[in-house]
Amino acid sequence: MPPHNLVQNALDALIEHHRSRGLSNQVPVFTWDTEEIACFMHEEGLCDDYTGAYDAIEQATAGRESFYFEDWIIEHDYVRDLWIFRRKLDFSDIVKDSSSRKEIVEEHIRTKIADLDPRAFETLLINMFDRIPHVDDPFVRKQSHDGGFEMSLRITDPITGAAEWILVQAKQQSKKVSVSQVRELLGTIRIESNKHRHRRYRGLMISTLPATTYAVQAAKDSGSLVDFIALDGLVKLMMENNIGWQKEALEFATISESFWTELEDE
After folding, report:
1. Type and span of the H or E element at 51
2. Number of domains making up the chain
3. Which residues lie closer than 8 Å to 191 by C-beta, 6 or more apart?
4. Is the pLDDT of residue 145 over 50?
């Protein structure tokens, strides 16, 4: 039998062995080195001895790196002298893998946000507001000692066209948002509302840690003039608006069974 056919038969048998153990779906990638395959070929009676099997492998792989068997591709890594068996993913596999990758990206974003210093945290928020629809004029306030808010922005209702000004406190801190911080923001909303009576003002507390129960209650007691976004909410906004990550498109080729069926029926 030609060396190529001997090696192909051995590779096919290794895949069938992998399938027989119920690993095909759970483990779509596995490896064997050349020495192990040569031993397998001898033990299975595909070659008379180990040396003959090894020679057949060398001849079969001369100028060829890939072999195929049904929905598997087998590639020979010459540098590591390793055979990599990889099952081609079907569409459902790709959907599942895409979902898993998205979860990994979300966790990476969560970690990166948590590691930012307060100034970089503010810069992130401005970049985010710049890219969210219906958010206009994000503005970083000059640092001052009177507190109140770090930035402001204007949100336009997409239906009515009405505008609302949002005063933002950005809290990149190691403790939860407190009642005093919420009250400070409420006080600033009242001050700005008195300055610009034709505007509608609200507050937004953005933090890596959530607000305390008492802080949330203080916001409700004020007529819910202050909303909260914590780390999970930030990650969600960034994912929804493609901020800090990118989509990679992939063509998925599959055979058109209907085409060939119709052709055979004519």
Report:
1. helix 50-60
2. 2
3. 148
4. no
Q: Is residue 255, in this structure, part of any structural domain at all?
A: no
3-state DSSP assignment of residue 228 = strand
pLDDT of residue 148: 64
Pairing type for strands 135-140 and 151-156 reads antiparallel
Please report how many Cα atoms fall inside a 13 Å half-sphere around the Cα of residue 49, on the Cβ side.
2
Percent of the chain exceeding pLDDT 90 equals 51
Domain extent for 125: 107-240
Report residue 117 as tokens. Answer: 């210093």
Residue with tokens 């994000």: 138
Q: Tokens 């808010």 — which residue? A: 149
Burial state string for 58-93 with b = 16 or more CB within 10 A and e = fewer than 16: eebbeeeeebebeebebebeeeeeebebebeeeeee
